[in-house]
Design goal:
Number of domains: 1
Radius of gyration: 29 Å
Number of strands: 0
Order of helices and strands: HHHHHHH
Distance between the termini: 94 Å
Shape: elongated
Strand content: under 5%
Number of helices: 7
Length: 212
Amino acid sequence: MATSRTTLIALALAAAVMLAGCSDTDSTSNTASASPAPTPGAAVAWANAVCTASIDLRTTVQEASAALGSGASGSPTTLEQTQAEVRDHADAVQQSAASLARTLSGVPVGSDPQLAVLNELETASRAAQAGIERLRAAAAQVADAKTTEELTAAMATLKSTLTASADGVRSYLASLHSTVGVGEQAVQESFGAAPACKEFTAAASASATASP
């Protein structure tokens, strides 16, 4: 009877040890699965999205400059038509800028840490964003114009602000060229493999080749 009781106690202890071991294994497994592995493909996709958003911002600013630089459409228009045209172009530029900001901040989890340290590019992007915020304020002045005189004054402010915004975007694009060309290895590899970044990587390669 004593032997039987001893055997039962031994079996119970063995079962407890086994259960504890399983629990530790499951915990380790869950911890491991919660830590994302590096994903080079995701880094390339992110770089491709950055270049796509950058090109889109450049395009919308160029279109706004072409349409509004000479005074809306250049044809006789009513006050309301001019305001609508300004609003449409200003909205397009703001949407493109917001898309770029979201993309730049969306470095994929698990990517090389070098991708998250694009200080120069982020600084240039913030400067461009500030210019586009001023463009939004200038567009609001156009929207508030009630007379031809007010519209003329608001359009003059809008044109100068648009020129400054275009300069900010060009500075950002120059920073992107520089980042792709002389950035950290992980940055160059990700942008170099992204189809939408070809114009930036090609320009960077040409610049490097031309350098003594």
